[in-house]
Design a protein that fits this description.
Length: 214
């Protein structure tokens, strides 16, 4: 197949897809690689793989998230915290120091009734992303375990209406996946997701405190 034929086929495939903007990081990576001098055959191969990557990205972004996506995102974001060299951007001097730090960094006010205690000391907080929106990430500890509490805007997400468990005053999705326990719920305009490999009962205890039920 000639280069012109490859270009034509790729153009037809891409023209049939909805137009969405790729992340800046993806665009910069592709542009940097394209700028390097390459033999013609290598250039054609790179173009094909770049197009495939763009098609996959658009397809994934175009899919509506499901309630399982909330659980999966919570675990993935928790893993980012665990593997980060800087898991918190604001070290805890108490919740009254951490919460004001988010002002101007989020498009909502993160509300949590729990300030940390001797059982679940608060390490600090950082700005995270939850599916397609910004989130406040509070990092707590339970002995040697790390617990992440994500607070984010709830609208537009597929909150389940069945299979829920009553946790204090809220109905939560409770799931165990990939070795982590997840509790997620909606409270008015805000969504909450708590993730850790700590004992499920202890995580529920923390969820009660975050939700405002001692």
């Amino acid at each position: 197949m000639t280069d012109d034929r490859i270009d034509a086929e790729l153009k037809r495939a891409l023209d049939r897809l909805p137009r969405r903007t790729a992340p800046a990081g993806l665009r910069e990576m592709i542009e940097a690689r394209a700028a390097r001098p390459r033999p013609a055959r290598v250039v054609a191969t790179i173009a094909i793989f770049a197009a495939i990557a763009a098609i996959v990205f658009v397809w994934l972004r175009g899919r509506a998230p499901t309630s399982d996506a909330i659980v999966a995102e919570a675990v993935n974001d928790h893993l980012r915290v665990l593997y980060s060299e800087r898991p918190v951007e604001i070290a805890s001097g108490g919740i009254h120091q951490v919460k004001p730090w988010f002002a101007g960094k989020l498009d909502f006010a993160p509300v949590t009734a729990f300030a940390g205690d001797d059982e679940f000391p608060l390490e600090g907080g950082s700005v995270a992303y939850f599916i397609d929106r910004k989130a406040a990430a509070y990092v707590f500890h339970r002995r040697l375990h790390v617990v992440t509490v994500f607070v984010f805007r709830a609208e537009g997400l597929p909150w389940p209406s069945t299979g829920l468990r009553r946790v204090g005053r809220v109905d939560a999705r409770v799931e165990t996946t990939r070795g982590f326990h997840v509790l997620a719920w909606r409270d008015g305009d805000l969504g909450y997701a708590i993730v850790s490999d700590v004992d499920a009962g202890e995580l529920t205890t923390l969820a009660l405190r975050v939700a405002g039920d001692k």
